[in-house]
Design brief:
Zincin-like; 5 helices; 2 domains; alpha+beta; 3-stranded antiparallel sheet
């Protein structure tokens, strides 16, 4: 079994256990800045093929459980209390490894500094912001350019 086929088998088994039969499908996407995504409109959970190629089975299970919890509680719950308790019941540990890119999958604002560091926000930034990875203090030379994610990168129900 290839790497991706093994990941697919593992993910489909988890989906079959936790979600009602024949409602959600699994697939791969090409994202580089997040691990997984829950597409509420298409009832589809996807995992980045770049992540799938390098993550171990444990990490992948965490990614899929994170997204299954989204599927169970719905888009409006975001990463709030009901999502957190559902995710925990599924066995999602939410440790540091998964808090970054995965927790960012629903954030609609994405920005980049001139050096290419990616930043995400849940709300439109109201003041000029600069990259904290490039300089600790505000510095216009490291200003972040913000953009709203294009609709195909945002789960339809939270657009
Ligand atoms: Zn999430
Ligand atoms: Zn930067």
């Amino acid at each position: 079994m290839s790497e991706l086929a093994a990941v697919r088998a593992q993910a489909e088994a988890l989906i079959a256990v936790h979600l009602p039969a024949d409602t959600w499908t699994f697939g791969f996407d090409n994202a580089r800045t997040r691990a997984g995504q829950c597409d509420f409109g298409r009832h589809r959970i996807t995992v980045s093929r770049h992540l799938a190629a390098r993550a171990d089975a444990n990490a992948l299970e965490q990614v899929v459980l994170h997204e299954i919890a989204h599927a169970l509680v719905g888009a409006a719950a975001g990463h709030g209390p009901s999502w957190r308790s559902t995710a925990r019941q599924l066995g999602y540990r939410g440790d540091r490894l998964h808090d970054g890119p995965i927790a960012d999958d629903l954030a609609p604002w994405v920005g980049r500094c001139p050096s290419g560091h990616e930043h995400v926000r849940y709300r439109r930034p109201t003041r000029p912001t600069s990259c904290a990875r490039c300089a600790r203090r505000y510095d216009p030379a490291n200003a972040i350019q913000w953009e709203r994610r294009t609709p195909d990168r945002t789960p339809s129900a939270v657009r």
